[in-house]
Write a structure and sequence with these properties.
Elements lengths: L5 E6 L3 H10 L5 E7 L3 E3 L4 H5 L9 E3 H4 L6 E5 L2 E5 L4 E4 L2 E4 L2 E4 L3 E3 L5 H6 L1 E2 L3 H20 L3 H8 L1 E4 L3 H21 L10 E4 L11 H13 L3 E3 L4 E5 L2 E4 L4 E3 L2 E4 L3 E3 L16 E3 L11 E3 L4 E3 L13 H19 L14 E6 L2 E5 L4 E3 H13 L5 H17 L12 H12 L1
Parallel strand pairs: 1-2, 1-9, 2-5, 9-21, 11-18, 12-13, 12-18, 13-14, 20-22
Antiparallel strand pairs: 3-4, 6-7, 7-8, 10-19, 15-16, 16-17, 23-24, 24-25
Helix pairs in contact: 1-9, 5-6
This protein binds flavin-adenine dinucleotide (FAD).
Flavin-adenine dinucleotide (FAD) binds next to helix 1, strand 2, helix 7 and helix 9.
């Protein structure tokens, strides 16, 4: 007799969720439903290029329904997770209830403001396509206002840009904004003298690119300083109010733009017991990514905390490669369980890390060596094109990069503002 299909519900179609789906959909014994609050997958490592008007959002995103075309065992449910009901084997979303046999939670993280409510209310995060577009509009509008401002103090506030967080996102943003100042602002905004001298990169750690090698850290600092960025280490942002950033060493910086690229925390999952929520609000899982104390609920990627990998007793770094590898292994493990075979434990294979600093300059830490400069920059471009979903996206991005880097003149600096009330109305209609 034919067995009924096992219902696998995956909440979050980021790196972990999408790689799980890509591999599990080959097994026709599963009916897979992806639940995501957006109707597209996107590629966070390139968000900063959207925010700085270097590439279009469509270069790094792809609609789930297009991805699922002609796959008979895949369904998409657009909605945001509200609650997990482990006893009933279902989840509640803002657009309805979804039943599961296996539940996989892979909703990633959100920005962590470390309890600073005014920073949360007034700064600009960099976690989603919406954030990146919001930041792009904000930066462009701010430049227009800087042009109009007559009071030098007011002008200064519009010109200063403060980035909090010296990880790859903060470094890449600072480098890109410095290039924007050098190549674009100088040509298009004759009223603005030198945007680069108004860029501040603040980090609480003693070096930029904290988890990378010392050589990468030194190179990033050297290149950014040469580009005119004020790099401030060993200093935390303490408050942001009345257009002023307050630093832990007592300094203040007047600015209309504080970009928050510092710290993340796991997304909340109501319905799970508090005892499974660990450090950084990450969900504690066993070696097979099964949520502690449950039988059929798994957590993957940035959202989970797995301490069983002997090389990472404190948990894995929150990186794309970890999420991808966990997604692929869980697909294999769910098939194994259905074949009555034991699951395999997860062990992270670190392929190295890279960061781009500015045009033609990047750093890379491979397991056995460090490299930098133009060669590293080319490798960075290559490895960021390969994982993009969709051949057309890869070609479009390669062309955009070629055009923008060669001409120094990308043409995406459009201020497009959908009317807030229309967006709100549509959303309320959808979720009611
Ligand atoms: C700006 C930026 C730059 C980065 N650069 C790098 C880099 O260079 N290299 C690197 O290795 N890593 C980088 N990272 C980290 C990397 O993106 C993450 O480690 C990776 O995305 C984690 O994958 P994930 O599948 O766990 O979560 P995500 O990729 O974050 O996916 C989460 C998914 O869940 C969905 N979701 C969230 N909440 C809900 C909800 N309530 N209901 C339904 N769906 C929901 C989201 O829409 C999203 O599709 C960067 C991250 C950011 C933000």
């Amino acid at each position: 007799m034919e067995q009924p299909l096992k219902k696998v519900v995956i909440v979050g179609g980021g790196f972990a969720g999408i790689n799980l789906i890509k591999h599990l959909c080959k097994d026709s014994r599963f009916l897979i439903t992806l639940v995501d609050k957006n109707n597209y997958h996107f590629f966070p490592p390139l968000l900063y290029q959207v925010a700085t008007a270097f590439i279009e959002p469509s270069n790094i995103s792809y609609p789930f329904r297009r991805l699922f075309q002609e796959k008979t065992n895949l369904r998409f449910h657009m909605g945001s997770l509200q609650k997990v009901n482990p006893e009933q084997n279902n989840i509640e979303t803002d657009t309805g209830v979804v039943e599961y046999d296996y539940l996989v939670l892979s909703m990633g993280t959100e920005s962590n403001y470390f309890g600073m409510e005014r920073v949360k209310a007034n700064s600009l995060p960099m976690k989603s396509i919406d954030d990146a577009l919001n930041l792009r509009n904000h930066l462009l509008l701010n430049m227009e206002e800087a042009v109009h401002a007559e009071d030098p103090k007011e002008k200064e506030k519009h010109l200063n840009i403060v980035i909090c967080g010296g990880g790859p996102t903060g470094v890449e943003l600072a480098g890109m904004l410095a290039e924007l100042g050098r190549n674009i602002a100088a040509k298009e905004y004759p009223e603005i003298k030198d945007l680069r001298s108004h860029l501040y990169l603040i980090d609480a750690g003693k070096a930029l690119l904290g988890p990378m090698s010392q050589k990468s850290q030194q190179e990033a600092t050297r290149v950014l300083k040469k580009l005119g960025v004020h790099v401030i280490n060993n200093t935390a942002v303490k408050d942001y109010n009345n257009d002023t950033v307050y630093l832990s060493d007592g300094r203040t910086i007047p600015t209309k733009v504080l970009i928050w690229a510092s710290g993340v925390t796991g997304r909340e999952v109501p319905g799970l017991p508090a005892s499974v929520v660990g450090r950084g609000r990450r969900i504690m899982v066993d070696a097979n990514n099964k949520v502690q104390g449950t039988q059929n609920i798994f957590a993957l990627g940035d959202l989970c905390l797995q301490t069983t990998d002997k090389n990472y007793p404190g948990g894995h770094p929150q990186l794309a490669q970890v999420a991808i590898q966990q997604g692929i292994l869980l697909a294999k493990n769910l098939s194994r369980v259905t074949d009555n075979k034991p699951m395999e434990p997860f062990a992270y294979n670190d392929k190295g890390s890279m960061a781009i600093i500015s045009k033609y300059k990047a750093v890379g830490d491979l397991p056995k060596f460090f490299f930098k400069g133009f060669g590293a920059w080319l490798v960075w471009l290559f490895i960021h094109i390969i994982p993009l979903i969709g051949f057309r996206n890869k070609v479009k991005l390669a062309f955009s990069w070629f055009w923008s880097f060669v001409t120094n003149d990308p043409t995406l600096r459009l201020i497009i503002r959908p009317r807030k009330e229309d967006v709100q109305k549509e959303y309320e209609k959808f979720t009611s």
